[in-house]
Specification:
mainly alpha; 303 residues; 71% helix; 19 helices; 2 domains
């Protein structure tokens, strides 16, 4: 486990005194750093300004200052600002989509960095993770909300569901959304959720939008590769033959990203039938396939 990095009380007091003696950067300086596209300088200035003043600027600043503050929070916050960022996104969604997008992008950037060890070291309560995930999921579940906002919220949920409690049933319900992009983002967020296997299997077999079906298949097969099929839905589902046929087709489809096809091979190999093994053999011998695909198919086919 990563060891929390702390400072002795004397060092902390000296550092605090030094920080208090240095004049805090101005909003103008922050804007100049952002315009220069220098993330190191932006982060340095944002750290000196601090999370609380940046949140205040995001709520009450003028024009682009609010976007600057949100961008900066995405670089430095440790998770404590997530609920306020989601609330700001929800409030802004009615009349300022740019600000709402900036708030959710900041939330996603924060969740991209969160790992269990950082939560422990920063003493972030797990209920903040669960509360933030609930707010994001509620936002994503609003059918009248801008579709891009809904998908951005789901991308942040996908990061949080690996850290704490998330309402995976409501998340799975979004596989029935009218918006393909929302269904795809929901499928991606369900990656690694064992209880979602039946819903993902149904999506792979029945989904009309091919990109959504591929997203569901990758999420399902990532779970199978990591921990096996806990519910064995790949073979016991009522639509199992159709499901497995579609997985085989996707695994051979050159329009699907190689990284995704590598994940799909785990499903093809799981309790493989003769047709599944033939698919692995075909990929292994396909000279036009990526070498990584051929190697993995060869390895799986020989077991």
């Amino acid at each position: 486990m990563q060891r929390c990095q702390g400072m002795g009380s004397i060092t902390a007091r000296l550092l605090l005194g030094l920080l208090l003696s240095v004049r805090a950067p101005t909003v103008k300086q922050l804007g100049a750093a952002i315009r220069s596209r220098d993330p190191v300088q932006v982060e340095r200035i944002a750290q000196r300004i601090g999370t609380a003043p940046l949140l205040l600027l995001a709520r009450r600043g003028h024009g682009e200052e609010r976007v600057w503050a949100l961008f900066s929070l995405g670089l430095i916050d440790n998770g404590t600002a997530l609920p306020e960022l989601v609330a700001l996104a929800e409030k802004s969604a009615r009349d300022d989509l740019v600000l709402a997008h900036a708030a959710l992008q900041a939330a996603k950037n924060i969740t991209d960095r969160l790992i269990p060890q950082s939560l422990e070291c920063d003493e972030i309560p797990l209920d903040i993770v669960g509360h933030s995930a609930g707010l994001l999921l509620a936002l994503a579940s609003r059918p009248t909300l801008d579709t891009t906002l809904r998908t951005e919220a789901l991308h942040a949920v996908a990061n949080l569901q690996t850290l704490g409690p998330v309402d995976t049933q409501n998340l799975a319900n979004l596989l029935q959304s009218d918006e393909p992009r929302v269904r795809s983002a929901a499928a991606e967020a369900l990656s690694g959720v064992a209880s979602a296997e039946p819903a993902l299997c149904a999506c792979v077999a029945e989904e009309e939008d091919y990109s959504v079906a591929v997203a569901a298949a990758v999420a399902l097969c990532r779970q199978v590769r990591a921990r096996g099929s806990s519910r064995d839905a790949l073979t016991t589902a009522a639509n199992a033959p159709k499901l497995r046929a579609r997985l085989r087709a996707m695994a051979q489809d050159k329009s699907v990203a190689v990284s995704d096809r590598l994940e799909l091979l785990a499903c093809v190999r799981h309790r493989a039938t003769a047709e599944d093994m033939a698919t692995l053999d075909h990929i292994a011998s396909d000279s036009s396939a990526a070498e990584s695909l051929r190697r993995l198919a060869r390895s799986l086919g020989s077991h």
